[in-house]
Amino acid sequence: MTYTLPLVVFLTALFLVPLVQLLRLSLRPVDANNTARPGFTFAQYGRVFTESYFYGSLGRTVITALLVTVLCVVLAYPAAYVLAHRRPGVLRTVLFVIVISPLLTSVVVRSYGWVVLLSGAGPVNRALVATGLLRQPAHLLTSYTAVVVSVTHVLLPFAIVPLTTALGGLDRDVHRASQSLGAGPVRTFARVTVPLSLPGVVTGALVVFALAMGIYITPLLVGGVNQPLAGIRVYDQVSTVYDYPVAAALSFALLAITVVSTSALGTAFRLWERRLHG
């Protein structure tokens, strides 16, 4: 206990104290200039849940996070399967470095990479025009599709890593036993591999969903400030409107939805696993 006390104090100061300060700010009234005044009110939360500008962004954020989570899990499974079943060697090391290399690069750099790719004179538009699919460059930037694609790319490694760990830890004898009982490769994959790898799927999905709920740099750079996402709304309230109490209230609403959603998914998986294994 003595050795862990400094760590507990550090984590408390680093996370809990700012959250308490932000909560206090969200409960402050504002004047006509959106300046926080002394006092206590739930008016900011009332605005968040009654004005479509705010609650609409919360709903769109949840939908976007769910979509990105599904895409990341679907795309991560083949990559994780290859990494988990590849024998240790140079090729496996190269593949693993390719997977984790985006995590070593700033998210701003990766986001600007998508800006370059999707710009009017970028490689994507040039390829579409050159192949005759488009007569003139399309407006790919500032679109919702561009936001989903870029956010999926940014968060994909967070799904691949836990899936690779889960698939790599599976007992190969179980697969051989399944095949010896007459199950083919497809049935073995569907009835053995996928159920046993679900802990990795759930872990990756929870991490990606939580990160997608709060991400704003990539959507802001690729999609623009008009994207109806809660993170961008918070950024706009802080940098343009200067309404810090509303920004704090919207941040806590986003945090609450994220915590409730991830807790519900984790609880559902634990109940399903308990029912499956008894």
TrEMBL record:
Residues 58-265 form the ABC transmembrane type-1 domain. CDD domains: TM_PBP2 (cd06261). It is a multi-pass membrane protein. The chain crosses the membrane at residues 62-83, 95-121, 141-168, 189-217, 246-272. SUPFAM superfamilies: MetI-like (SSF161098). Keywords: Cell membrane, Membrane, Transmembrane, Transmembrane helix, Transport. It holds the Pfam family BPD_transp_1. It is found in: Cell membrane. Belongs to the binding-protein-dependent transport system permease family. CysTW subfamily. This is ABC transporter permease. It comes from Actinoallomurus acaciae.
